Amino acid sequence: MSGYDALLARREVEDSVADVFEAEFLVVTGRSVEIVGRGESPDYEVLIDDVKTGLELTAIHACDAETILAEMRSLAGKKGASYRRRGLFIRPIILLGHLDWPAPDVEGAALFDFHNELADIAASAEFDCCGFSEVWLMDASDSISASVSAYPIGVSHRIASSDRDHT
Q: Is 143 within a domain?
């Protein structure tokens, strides 16, 4: 696969993840969301309850709760430092980690399978210093339910939300 083909494939996956986020966010949080543009840093411009917000996507390659949170903390720290250095935290930005299993045809655990374990250890996760207004995990695997295409950890199960006021 050429570099261009790989980029197109990555964009297609990101568009799919963003579409699922847009479809499920209202259900999980009660807050409206609309994708209004595509960028690079952050990946998308969205309106959440009419507040212009960035949406940065990141793939998580892990298969258990501790590894998922460790990778998410690491990526949040790296991306947060990069965004801070470039002055990009001028508005709220959500970091959305989506589980990216080794291959679609390989059966593996889904976020739903260790939801309770994640909820227990997420309370001690340190994301507030990363600069993102919210940090989410989402699994768009088909193993969760035929009628629900994603399982974001949201509202009462949100990994982290900054206390900053972005009005």
A: yes
